[in-house]
Structures are given as structure tokens and as C-alpha cells.
Amino acid sequence: MNNNLQKVTVELQNGKFCLAGNRSADDLNPKALMLCSTAKCAGLTIMALLEKHNITPKSMEITVEGTLNTQTLRGDSVFESFEVIYNVECRRLEEQSAVSAAVERAQERSCGMVTMLRKIAPVSHVIEVVSTESIES
Hints:
This protein is of the alpha+beta class. It has a single domain (5-131), classed as GMP Synthetase, Chain A, domain 3. The chain contains 3 helices and 5 strands, in the order ββαββααβ. A hairpin with a 2-residue loop joins strand 1 (5-13) and strand 2. Helix 1 packs across helix 2 and helix 1 crosses helix 3 (112-120). The protein is globular and about 50 Å long.
């Protein structure tokens, strides 16, 4: 494992974003807390954008990774880059384009935390949107 990679994942559970793996914010170091805040902010922004279309995803998981400039986590470590990974499961196939647009909008201009990360270091992203609706013949 890369020691200089900090990674936090949040999942949508009952309308709220919670840390994956039954983790608590108390378990996170300050740098991981910043990543957690970014993931939650992006998720809340996406949900607000989707509310306008009356869409509630079946599931959503957002992972934010940050690469530090030191081999190990230290107090003086700073982030050199970030990656935000969005995994969203739609209830219906026709929701995919609206969900993709909401995620893209949150990433590019609506989420204040992602905007702040861009002022620290480059931010890349991956968006995966799927539908679990069975296709009828």
C-alpha cells in the first residue's frame, strides 16, 4: 500500500452520507477529515441537484483520495493531488443521464469543497453511473 495516499469513502445510508466500513470521524486524522468533508459535501450537492428532478439514487458511494508529498503521514505533509471517485446506482435506466449531469456539475462547479481542493492541488475524478433496472424484452 502507498503510505502517502489518504483515502476516505462515504456511502449514502437512509438519506445521509456515512463513513464506509462502520468507521467514525473520530478514527480519522485531520487530513482524512478534510477528504471526508469533501466527499460528504459532494454527496449533499448531488442530492440537492437530483431533488429538483425527483430522483433518489438507489445507492451512492464517493471516495476521495489525496496523495501526500511525504512517504508517511506527518504534521507537515501537504497534498500534491486528489482524485474523487463517484459510484452511483440508479433505480431506472432513464435516470442515468440526469444523475451523470448532477455529478459532473457538483464536481466541476457546485461543490465548494471540491473547488477548495482545486486551490491546493490538481483534482481528477471518475464517474460511474449504473442502473439496476431489469430490461424487459
